[in-house]
Amino acid sequence: MMAKKDEKKSVLLYATHWRVLRKLSMEQRDHIFHAIFALIGEEEMPELDFVEDLVFTTIQENILDNIAKWEETRAKRAVAGAKGGRKKASNTNEANASNAKQCQANEANASNAKHNVNVNDNVNVNDNVNVNDNVNVNDKEKRKKEKAVTASSDCSAECSTNVEPSLQKSKKEANEHFEKLWALYPHKRGKNQVSDKTKRKLLDVSVQAMDAAIKRYVHEVRGTDRPWLNGSTWFNGRYQDYTEGNYVPTVTTGGKGAHYQSGEGFRDFSDLEE
What we know:
Blueprint: H1 15-21, H2 26-40, H3 50-122, H4 125-128, H5 131-160, H6 165-168, H7 171-184, H8 196-202, H9 207-221, H10 231-235
Helix pairs in contact: 2-3, 7-8, 7-9
């Protein structure tokens, strides 16, 4: 008996087979195993005696049933594999189609972008019409400057209330007042060394107060060897030592009726009281 050529190259034996085989001799077992492997292979079946053939027939039925089940399973797997292959191929095709669509979409977007770029390049209205931008900027700058001027004016008005009254007076008024004070001082030297700022400060000193300070100074130095202070030195600050509240009297050696050279640069103080 020739074995069927089959792709299955294995055989499944059961424990029940061994219960029968172990009752046989070693030679009989050898013949039966030879027949089993010839069945699943391509070899010629060996000659079996009655007992060996009886046992082999039982085992053969189990082997053929297993082969049939295996072939059925293999066929199902082949069908499933074919379906899976078709599905995979379908997925691949769908993916390819999707990629193709995406490529087309990308090309379309690129074309549109290029078109848009060309349009923007050609329509340079926004770039050329910078006059509006400049006008807007100029308007903004103008408004900023107006606000700054307004704020400065407001600040000036506000700050002016906090400035000393003498600083708010005109230069002309300061000069006129200084001329009156300068006429009171006996040693008229260094007039040009009195600054406008000092003259404005002197607006706070009345003619009467300066005259009193000068008289104190004259009483202190007349009849002595002390040199006269230049007018610039006096009005640049030394007069403050002889103003009311600051003056500290000192003993002098001069007498009543002392006369100082009058005329240009000097004043006659012979009429001053002690």
